[in-house]
Amino acid sequence: MKKLFVISIFATLFGTGLLAQSEVPQVEITPDRKHAIDSLALEKVHDLSKYISLIGDKTTPWSDAQRVIERACELFMEGSEMGVSNIKHPEQVNNYKIREYFDRLMQLNYSKVVIDWYKIQYVSDLERQPDGTFVGVITVYQKFQGYDKEKGLVYEDTTKKDITIYVKRKETQIGGRLIGFWDVMLGDIRVKETSKK
Q: Taking the model in full, what pTM does it have?
């Protein structure tokens, strides 16, 4: 009898677990939750903007830049890429894996680099994907300035970029209980247009 009771409880718990797993993709985002997710997504984009400025800054010590690169990479989905363009060939865009982009940014041949992001805004609503992930796009404008010690400002451009964001339902264990939460990760950053100003 005890065996049957234990098996019954196990089957109930196991079945509930399966039901919970199958329901994860069906979870809706309430308006309040959407507002919180939007804030988190924009906060992560602002963090990335700060990290890029620090990595590109020639006065940042190498060891500090490496720590910032690690933090910046944690913002992204695995395999994400960053688009890079140049006003000399605006139609030619090179896409680099995120870590490679940061490494290249550190090695740019300027005595000083200034990178500012502005007009950071959502351009699309979150759309549900078949696996339950929600995907949206944030647009930013990036102003890049490269300086030479003797000549001063030698290169400047402004690039409009689209950042794909992924919103996923995740679970963590706190005090023996499973707690569900929404997490935001950044994806590919694509160049939309590049101009002199």
A: 0.79
pLDDT digits (tens, 9 = 90+) for 39-86: 899 999 999 999 999 999 889 999 999 999 999 999 999 999 999 998
Token pair listed for 168: 């996923």
For 73-85, how does the pLDDT look when each residue is reduced to its tens digit (9 = 90+)? 999 999 999 999 9
Helix (H, G, I), strand (E, B), or coil: what is residue 53?
helix
Give the fold, CATH level 3, of 28-195.
Nuclear Transport Factor 2; Chain: A, (3.10.450)
How would you class 15 by CB atoms within 10 Å of its CB: exposed for 0-12, middle for 13-18, buried for 19 or more?
A: exposed
SS (H, E, C) the chain: CHHHHHHHHHHHHHHHHHHHHHHHHHCCCCHHHHHHHHHHHHHHHHHHHHHHHHHHCCCCCHHHHHHHHHHHHCCECCCCEEEECCCCCCCCCEEEEHHHHHHHHHCCCCCEEEEEEEEEEECCCCEECCCCCEEEEEEEEEEEEEEECCCEEEEEEEEEEEEEEEEEEEEEEECCEEEEEEEEEEEEEEEEEEECC
Best CA proximity match to 119, nearest among 69, 84, 163: 163
| Residue 16 pLDDT | 38
Please state the domain extents for the chain.
Answer: 28-195
Q: What tokens does 102 get?
A: 């940061």
Q: How far apart are CA 86 and CA 195, in angstroms?
A: 9
